[in-house]
Amino acid sequence: MFKTNILMIFALLFVITGCGQNDVSPPPPETGDTNNTTPGITEGEINPLDDDDDMTVRDEDIQHSFMKFDLDVEYDRNVSYEAEYEMEGNGESKIEDDLNDRRLYGDDAYNELKPKLEQLNFTQETENIEITEEILTVFGIPTEYKEFELEVTFTDGTTKEVKFTQ
User: Fold this and answer.
1) Were both Cys, which of 49, 87, 98, 162 would link to 150 (CB 3.0–4.6 Å)?
2) Domains in the chain: how many in total?
């Protein structure tokens, strides 16, 4: 009887441990809601905890001549307008607009920057003052700046820097 109990315990232990090894649960059923938003954040709002500035850039999306575009315009009272676009990797974009108290990152920033970048027609040979005037007009920002800085890398790899102080 003692041997039977030991064998029974051993067999039971073997069965229990054998059944518990495959803990793969099926994925939860889809609810039909494909809008993956963060709870508490409505569409169009920016989640400050979300630092994912990556965006998807496809070749057919690019209709401007910039691989990198970095604009920083400083105004009185520590107010600035910054717009950045970089095509490397997945691409990165951001707009920090103190004039209108707006912050956009990733795809939201890219979607706002793309039509503006497509409107810009300057080249490496364009005079700096003409570039400044064109950017201020296209971006719709005030001309009464304290400092204007632009660094652009064109798709051919050439770089242009523009700096003005008023």
Assistant:
1) 162
2) 1
